[in-house]
Amino acid sequence: MGPKHDDVVDRMRRAGAGIGTMEAIKEDIVGDKASGELDKIQWKSKIKYHVIGGFLTPVGGGLGDPLQRFVDTWAWNDANEQSASVKKALDEKNTEQWLSSDFQIRHMVNHWATSSGYAEDDSGVTTLKSREAMGQRNDARRDVSQYLK
After folding, report:
1. The domain containing residue 105 runs over which residues?
2. Which residue among 38, 41, 50, 57 has its CA within the 20 to 30 Å range from the CA of 88?
């Protein structure tokens, strides 16, 4: 059976879909964790603003309001910096996961090709990787991600 045989194409599509499904689930779990961290950051920012700022607002001599605004700006900036750090870590984790699944698919198809007597750069094998297995991975990842939102 060659790389264009229906059974081979079907197996690679199913494998790609399985990998894409798992990738979407992992991204959802990591995303939920990051969302929880972002909520905590926002909560802490509001506490800083209301507790510290609320304490400073009644300060006399016209200093209370400027001090309150300083605390507001500080809390907002601190929350933005922490949020950016969480979002950057999330992007890095998702990129790492995508590259890992990309490697898994390439390795799977290349292993099949060499064990079946085909070169990894054979046009049929390349099509199996890019169009069939990776295409199904991307479709499954997109579809599962929509259900998980």
Report:
1. 6-148
2. 50
Does residue 1 fall inside a structural domain?
no
Is residue 146 classed exposed, middle or buried when 0-12, 13-18 and 19+ CB atoms within 10 A define those classes? exposed
What's the chain look like in SS3? CCCCCHHHHHHHHHHHHHHHHHHHHHHHHHHHHHHHHHHHHHHHHHHHHHHHHHHHCCCCCCCHHHHHHHHHHHHHHHHHHHHHHHHHHHHHHHHHHHHHHHHHHHHHHHHHHHHCCCCCCCHHHHHHHHHHHHHHHHHHHHHHHHHHC
Whether 38 is covered by a domain: the verdict is yes
pLDDT in tens, 45-79: 999 888 988 888 888 778 888 888 899 999 999 99
Residue type, 21: T
